Fold this protein.
Amino acid sequence: MRTHDFNYDLPGELIAQYPADSRADARMLVLHKLSGKCEIRRFTDIIDFFGEGDCVVVNDTKVFKGRLLGVKQDGGGRVEILLVSPSGTTQSCLEWDCLMRPGRRLREGSVVRLLPPPAASNAVADDQTLSPNATPAAVVLGKNSDGMFRVALEGADFETIERFFGHTPLPPYIRRPAEKSDEIRYQTVFASRTGSVAAPTAGLHFTPEIIGALKDKGVVMAELTLHVGPGTFQPVSSEEIEDHKMHREQYRLPEDAAVKINNARAANRRVLAVGTTSARVLETCSDMSGKLQPGSGSTDIFIHPPMKPKVADAILTNFHLPRSTLLMLVATFATTEFVLNAYDTAIAGRLRFYSYGDCMLII
């Protein structure tokens, strides 16, 4: 298939800049995958679609405050750093692979002095773990073959840097600075394993009350992990989608989750993947029959039409960027035509798009 088959036009005002007042306030477009029928419901109605023995699979990754702002020690130019993953072998985890902007004039040995958010300035001044005359810095160690920089964080341990200097790494289409409330609202209620630079946004709508209501109906919850990397926002630039090189992300499928999901499938019960991240782990860990084996590692699996998912038969997902690998993955749960028609329905219904927006259930 061609990349332009996954284009659509979105009015800019439908890109959500803030989350709904409460997590469960989102609207939910339901796409019935066999007929293509669409209906717009409330997210709380998800309880109506699942019952005893069904399995809901969620991603328990946690976003860390890896966006850092600073100035070059030599020249004073502003620099933005997005920490992606620790690369050092020391226990301090102070060597990181990262993206840096602007990166043109950053060379090996360049020093970027970190700046705290305005609200954190007083707390930094009072913090006893920081050297009195030192400001934490990122020192450029070099550049990797994949285009990422490698930096060493100096002047404080990572926990201190994250606490006092880190910003929540909101996606680029949210055109505002991160606020204190984002530290809570840009995490799912399942978040427990730190490692993502972006939230698994389909999970943002769940509340303890909704989870409790699902469990009361006999629905089984299974947790896995996929740490979301910056490649999730990368559009497909190749003309043929098969030519796209997928990014790698770290995953973990525990044995108890694999057992729960395998049992649901063996009993012909529904398996709902909450988000494209959960779907990627399920397909990575399954054999040709859809049976799961627990494990961990990294995956660069690229799921796109005409493939069909082997494990989950339903997906809950937010709305995704045009020409993105995430939109292509979603299209494997129905047809590309049905999914793009559903997007047209969402736009006509003024649903809110992307990370802080509304969601879609394909069932």
Notes: Helices lie at 121-126, 158-165, 182-185, 208-216, 255-266, 276-284, 325-331, 336-348.
